[in-house]
């Protein structure tokens, strides 16, 4: 059986395997148990296996690549338009195969074990950060109930709480001092957990040349750089920097029909965490641009004269994504833009 492509609709225990011939007609579309998936694929002749980029897709991608197949992972939102008829595994498997033939389909590379480890550490760290923020907000709110106002800055909270607890002149009762001290200990506990995850991430990337080149780019530190390595690898799956920025969701949405063409806010497609980190990095650059006179800072200051600061931050984030692509895809070190180019 000489097939054009094989698609696999992933699940926990029962998978749907579909094979399309050279005329894009289904010649095999059956349910397969988890334990028999690899044996089934061995008996099907094709060069490419495609799946949705979802739960367990990286694991199965690595296992299927060991069989000699080329594996492509397709974002789920690019598969959905090709589902014809009722929503079921049979139709989903055909839709995955059909989506793989579209010229604008973007395939996500299968992640290595190291990339998965880094991404897992990032997700755990992100959960700890959310928990720490919750504790900090509750601590600040309870202090406000007792007439003690602390600035909305977690650093100021860490600095002021010990002084507040030792101050005998405030109105805190013994009970209030006890639960505030406990919340402060919980805050320090999450600080320690977050610090451990950051150390683990840096340890995994200490010998990664791409990561160290990324750290040369303004606005990219260890957290942003490691998230980029975990999500996009060497970025060579993108044709150019704009394509990578669009994949992250940092390019404008367009509505065009006939003589009407409108551009609105950014699309917000793709990796939400990576997009947020790029915007945080861009905000740091914008906040410090007034004290600098390099080409990038001069460009930002010129934008700030006519644009809202939030728009400028997104524009800088878009530029950071393009710089990141150039550093990774071309294996080059960061070169600061010249004043002539900025002008």
How many individual domains?
A: 3
Average residue-wise pLDDT: 92
Q: What global shape is seen? A: globular
Helix content: 40-55%
Q: Major β-sheet, in short?
A: 5 strands, mixed
Order of helices and strands: EEEHEHEHHHHHHHHEEHHHH
Q: List segments where confidence is low: pLDDT < 50 over at least 5 consecutive residues.
A: none
Helix vs. strand class: alpha/beta
What order do the strands of the largest sheet run in, or round the barrel if closed?
A: 3-2-1-4-5
Number of E-type strands: 7
Count of runs of 4 or more consecutive helical residues: 14
Radius of gyration: 25 Å
How much of the residues is beta strand, in percent? Answer: 5-15%
Distance between the termini: 60 Å
Account of the protein in words:
The protein is α/β, with parallel strands linked by helices. It folds into 3 domains: 5-99, 2-Layer Sandwich (Nucleotidyltransferase, domain 5), CATH 3.30.420.40; 113-204; 209-342, no CATH class. The chain is 54% helix and 13% strand. It is built from 14 helices and 7 strands. It has helices at residues 37-42, 57-65, 76-79, 89-99, 113-145, 154-166, 174-204, 209-214, 222-232, 241-248, 272-288, 295-304, 309-329, 339-342; strands spanning 5-9, 14-20, 26-33, 48-52, 70-74, 252-257, 260-266. A 5-stranded mixed beta sheet has the order 3-2-1-4-5, sandwiched between helices. It has a two-stranded antiparallel sheet with strand order 6-7. Helix 10 (241-248) packs across helix 13. The longest helix is centred in the middle third of the chain and has 33 residues, at 113-145. It is globular and about 85 Å long.
